[in-house]
Amino acid sequence: MSNTLDNLMAAFAGESQAYQKYSAFAVQADKEGYTQVAKLFRAAASAEKIHAGNHLRAANKILTTKENLQEAINGETYEFESMYPPMIEEAQKSGNKTAERSFSMANTVEKTHARLYKDALENLGNNIAADIYVCPVCGETIVGNIPEQCPICKASGKMFIKID
Ligand SMILES: [Fe+2]
Ligand SMILES: [Fe+2]
After folding, report:
1. Residues 6+ apart with CB under 8 A from 159
2. Residue 134 Cα to ligand 2 middle (Å)
3. How far is the CA of 141 from the centre of ligand 2 (A)?
4. Nearest ligand to the C-alpha atom of residue 83
5. Which ligand minimizes its atom distance to the CA of 150?
6. Distance of CA 22 from the midpoint of ligand 2 (Å)
């Protein structure tokens, strides 16, 4: 059974990646004018998302919201404490500025996520209704009002995506 659990989590990771990859490929196909190919990529992406969700459910990794918030805090904290710092350092050393920026933006935003999740967990059941916005460039996540510009990457607040 533990082998099957490992397999489910490996398949979950693979399908999640395929979802992201095909979604990005769809945007590229649209840019190149291949609208039908873009549609096919989006269709396969949505199927891979379903597969990923099925695997995660089969692995019994979706618990109560209280437990899920704690899991989310743990994941985000691992990313900004242990995962990204050595990756940023390595990218700096090798002079890969694009990778360094990609890692650094994610690293900073994971701190925001951990904070917002902690706040949501502490106030579970009494969470105050508020708008939530995401920066389309760096992913910074803002609860409340859209800022003039992104505090992390300086993108215009006009570009922020409102989350339903
Ligand atoms: Fe995050
Ligand atoms: Fe940003």
Report:
1. 135, 136, 137
2. 8
3. 8
4. 1
5. 2
6. 23
- Cα 33 to averaged position of ligand 1 atoms, centre (Å): 32
Q: Which ligand is nearest to the CA of 151?
A: 2
CATH of 64-128, one of 1.10.3090.10, 3.50.50.60, 1.20.1260.10, 1.10.10.60: 1.20.1260.10
Q: What is the domain partition of the chain in residue ranges? A: 2-58, 64-128, 130-164
- Counting beta carbons within 10 angstroms of the beta carbon of residue 97, is it exposed (0 to 12), middle (13 to 18) or buried (19 or more)? exposed
- CATH T-level topology, domain 130-164: Rubrerythrin, domain 2 (2.20.28)
CA–centroid distance, residue 106 to ligand 2 (Å): 10
pLDDT band for 2, please (50, 70, 90 cuts): confident
User: What is the pLDDT averaged over residues 62-76?
Assistant: 98
Q: In this structure, which topology does domain 2-58 adopt according to CATH?
A: Ferritin (1.20.1260)
**Residue carrying the six token digits 């995506």:** 161
The beta strand positions in 1-152, using DSSP E, are 132-134, 141-143
Can you point out the beta strands (E) in 10-164?
A: 132-134, 141-143, 161-163
pLDDT at 1: 56
Task: Indicate if 64-128 has the same CATH topology as 2-58.
Answer: yes
